Amino acid sequence: DAGVIQSPRHEVTEMGQEVTLRCKPISGHNSLFWYRQTMMRGLELLIYFNNNVPIDDSGMPEDRFSAKMPNASFSTLKIQPSEPRDSAVYFCASARTGELFFGEGSRLTVL
Amino acid sequence: SQKIEQNSEALNIQEGKTATLTCNYTNYSPAYLQWYRQDPGRGPVFLLLIRENEKEKRKERLKVTFDTTLKQSLFHITASQPADSATYLCACITSGTYKYIFGTGTRLKVLA
Description:
The complex is a heterodimer.
Chain A: E1 5-7, E2 10-13, E3 19-24, E4 31-38, E5 42-50, E6 53-56, E7 65-71, E8 74-79, E9 88-95, E10 101-102, E11 106-110
Parallel strand pairs in A: 2-11
Antiparallel strand pairs in A: 1-3, 3-8, 4-5, 4-9, 5-6, 7-8, 9-10, 9-11
Chain B: E1 3-6, E2 11-14, E3 19-26, E4 30-38, E5 45-51, E6 56-59, E7 62-67, E8 72-77, E9 86-94, E10 100-102, E11 106-111
Parallel strand pairs in B: 2-11
Antiparallel strand pairs in B: 1-3, 3-8, 4-5, 4-9, 6-7, 7-8, 9-10, 9-11
């Protein structure tokens, strides 16, 4: 299996622009997680899905952030409009039971 | 509020020694706890899981303990090697949820 696949790996955008991050989980995994990692705050859970249904989005910082999982093999995290403080590495992870499998992350820089 | 704390200062040790990393949690009752390794520019990779009714778990040179009275987990790497240099993260999982909450991680550097 190719593992969790995230795109883009790097994104540089200007404040106010819309950003869409994409994730393909490992086939057969029924849970999907979006995390954000910064030096100051570490790895923060934004939202997680179980069987494509959002279970807990209490970590989503503001209404500017939204996440969808239209099917078992695809999820998106959207930021609209983006702000400089959104600059971070965004990780997607999937799980069947127990351990999380992380993608390589999407490094977002908002100028 | 719920908090998971790891030593934010980097830990430097000599090759061959045992590295011990700490994970403390407050206002939390995790059903189980996991440890991950993260290399620069990469996503975290799972290492070990320990349940609340287990005191200790081992895997090769790795050992994890879980003390629910002290609200603490210790992660040991014996006979450390420079290749063990990385950031190590602990994660707490509450029973009945899939909510994996991570500590901020401790950077370990093993000196040759």
